Amino acid sequence: MIESIVKINGIDVKKVTLDCVVIGTGAAGYNASIRLTDYGVNDIAIVTEGIYMGTSRNTGSDKQTYYKMNLCADYPDSPKAMAQDFFNGKCVDGDNAYAEAALSVNCFLHLCELGVEFPVNRYGEYVGYKTDHDPRARATSVGPLTSKMMTECLEREALKRNIKIYDKLQVIEFIKTNGTCTGILCLNKVAANENERFVIFDAKNVITATGGPAGMYNDTVFPLGHHGASGVAFEAGVIGKNLTEWQYGLASTNPRWNVSGTYMQVLPRFVSVDSEGNEYEFLNEYFDDIGVCLSKIFRKGYEWPFDCKKVLSGSSIIDLLVFRECVLKGRRVYLDFRKNPYGLDNLPYDKLDSEAREYLENAHACFGNPLERLQFMNMPAYDLYLSKGVDLKTEMLEIALCAQHNNGGLDVDMWWQTNIPHLFACGEVAGSHGVYRPGGSALNAGQVGSMRCAQYISKHLDNSLANTEMSFEDAQNAVIKHLAITRGILGNEDNLSALTEKYTKKMSEVAGPIRNADLLEGAIKDADDAIRNFDKIVKISSQNKLWLAYRLRDALIAQAVYMTGMAYYVMKGGKSRGSALYTSRNGDLPAKMEEMFRFELDDGAFNDTVFEVKYNSHNNTFVCDSRPVRPLPEGGGFFENVWREYRETKNIF
Predict the structure, then answer these.
(1) CATH topology of domain 493-618
(2) CA–CA distances in Å: residue 306 to residues 190, 279, 453
(3) pLDDT digits over 8-37, tens only?
């Protein structure tokens, strides 16, 4: 690793030359760096906006799940069976699915060896349970903060190996030479002047592990310290894949946390409040039958993600009712754990459906108010909010229908390399999932993907050293471009907060769980105009806010690309599926709902199709296309042949 100073356009720019740079200090980024050193690639560094930021370290759920192949009792399982379950999620590339299955045990045990204490029984078996879209009880957990514990253990190992971490640097450009990624340009978030503003990393390989593009949305359960950097990748020409596919669900807005599991199963009261302070128990107004209402609240606990298939007869109608209160009526929505729904002292448990009634009876929780039931059934769930400054005993909890996870993302091959040579993507930024995925599979995918990146880079490092020379002219052009942007937006005015709120709110309203083709087109144009005129319309009064301005710029590019993908899907005849309801003039309208909620369910026509979007930043145009999924491999092989090939190539090609 060589550090130097180069002069560009009259300013000093720090330059770091090395073999590989990893972007992100989440579970995927740390694992990528560790695996690189495992395979003999030591001239590496990690770049991060903030070591303690990001989703891996700052998010969780009622019982955050890690998904791996079953290792307990006599459950029949195999890599092929697990890969098939991933593949069945629709729009999934088979080679990614197979790798995520085949390496799940390796990556899981690696975490265990690093100190993540997944529970075992007296015989040493890693016991499991069933999660959503999971037929074989493959799930495990270390509690509500599983990914945080993973990240902390991986960080300790990275520090033990003396892996260099450059903190407070924000990636703002992938530098390309002759179509190949040769490094990155970063903004120094704590720079005092222009001579400290930019840092170039001249790298033979780049791994981006920046997580999902959370900064696009206003209504999001992604933690405050996480915004993503997908826009920078799109600007470089990386293809986006399955950008239509997200997970949305009910979550508290401050703090940002999923209100799944026990939070719903204790049957809280749903309340909306208008601008004048009037309260409405809106579920009571919608449901004619108290038993049906309470049963759907209960089921929302384990049917947490919004799902179009569960709107007409399932619990997802509650998600739509919350969205309607927030977006159409302009009210704020709360969960009240202090009182029972319908103002009742005692709930009519005998009117619940059998599943809900039997669960609460078996839990001995047919008593009291929601708070008392929550503290009895799951005291840590109450303590979690208390630790974040919210006492459910004395105040209501504000919620919204929020973006929670991106199943799509950057298109990657079977080694998690993007369409730009030597630029790899792993973790949530990589789009290896489809419409549905087993709960917890994202944590596994991040570990597997980062391992695959490292394997490929280590095998082909000599070749990459010969063919990925950064052109000084390309680096210079990147610095000059962003020097002009930073100078253009710095001034006496400051409209950054207002613009950020404007564009993120619009994204949540028209391109979140409820989508309308006409509204999408208008929002795409607005985002595109903002990108074209960014340094003219965005104004900040302090250099200290440059990184926030670039955060908005990244979000705008991501918004334009994602919404273009959504509009293209509708134009090709795509219908409502997964966690996205596309409004339609035909189809079904949920009872008592406005016409904007009429929709047609997906008929499976695109189950084996991947929709792609590529952004051309030179003329602000988008190229949309579709392709068949890559098929699920057969796997296996005759041992002697596999062994011979392994000796020759390690089977990395």
Answers:
(1) Methane Monooxygenase Hydroxylase; Chain G, domain 1 (1.20.58)
(2) 40, 25, 32
(3) 999 999 999 999 999 999 999 999 999 999
Is 570 in contact with 520 (CB distance < 8 Å)? yes
pLDDT of residue 425: 98
Nearest residue to 173 via CA among 192, 197, 195: 197
Under-50 pLDDT residues of the chain: none
User: Side chain identity at 438, as an amino acid letter?
Assistant: P
> What pLDDT is stored for residue 52 in this prediction?
95
Roughly how many angstroms between the first and final C-alpha of the chain, as a whole number? 27
Element (H, E) at 474: helix 472-489
Instruction: Give the whole-angstrom CA distance, residue 32 versus residue 452.
Output: 9
Beta strands in 494-571 (DSSP E): 514-515
C-beta neighbour count of 627 within 10 angstroms: 13
> How distant is the alpha carbon of residue 534 from its chain centre?
26
**Residue 225: per-residue pLDDT:** 86
CB hemisphere CA count around 550 (13 angstroms): 28
Helix (H, G, I), strand (E, B) or coil at 345: coil
Tokens describing residue 426? 């792993």
Q: What is the 3-state secondary structure (H, E, C) of 268-284?
A: CEEEEECCCCCEECHHH
Rounded CA-CA distance 162/284 in Å is 58
Sorted by sequence, the CB contacts under 8 Å of residue 234 that are 6+ apart come out as: 240, 557, 558, 561, 615, 617
Q: How many CB atoms lie within 10 A of CB 344?
A: 12
State both tokens at 88.
Answer: 């069945």
Provide the residue ranges of all domains of the chain, joining segments of one domain with +. Answer: 248-404, 493-618
Distance (Å, whole) CA 195 – CA 5: 10
3-state helix, strand, coil in the chain (%, to 5): 40, 20, 40
Q: Which CATH class is domain 248-404?
A: alpha beta
Nearest-angstrom CA–CA distance, 567 and 569: 5
Sequential DSSP letters for 383-412: HHHHHTT--TTTS-EEEEEEEEEES-EE--
How do residues 383-436 score in pLDDT, each as one tens digit?
999 999 999 999 999 999 999 999 999 999 999 999 999 999 999 999 999 999
Cα 334 to Cα 640: distance, rounded to the nearest angstrom: 62
What contacts 126, CB < 8 A, 6 or more positions away?
Answer: 68, 71, 72, 108, 112, 118, 119, 120, 140
Q: Measured between alpha carbons, how far is 17 from 43 in angstroms, rounded to an integer?
A: 9
How large is the angle between the packed helices 379-387 and 370-377, nearest 10 degrees?
110
Distances (CA, A) of 487 to 534, 542, 543, 549: 12, 11, 10, 12
Residue 296's pLDDT is what?
A: 98
How many residues does this entry show for the chain? 653
